[in-house]
Amino acid sequence: QVQLVESGGGLVQAGGSLRLSCAASGRTFSDYALGWFRQAPGKERVFVAAISRSGGNTYYADSVKGRFTISRDNAKNTVPLQMNSLKPEDTAVYYCAATRSLLGNWEHSRAGSYAYWGQGTQVTVSS
Known about the structure:
globular
């Protein structure tokens, strides 16, 4: 089992940057694929980015490609999400998720693929 804690959210102006981080407990962090999802008020939770167990494969929603970068530090058990060129439509609660299951490429973007979730961190982008 793994516990996830997000941090780094806040208020930023459009065009600015934020760096979210997800800290995971447990000694087998490298066994988990990890993802970031977000949920805006009144909307469903949607995929943002994911990274495979090895870190060799990354996946992005079209809406964030070229602006967001996901990475992982297996030594520190963290999953940073660097967010640049932020837009008001990026405003949401951002959640970190993890799964120990071996996922196919397309499965990394499905919320149902992930068994463990953090509490979320609020990101607000003002225009």
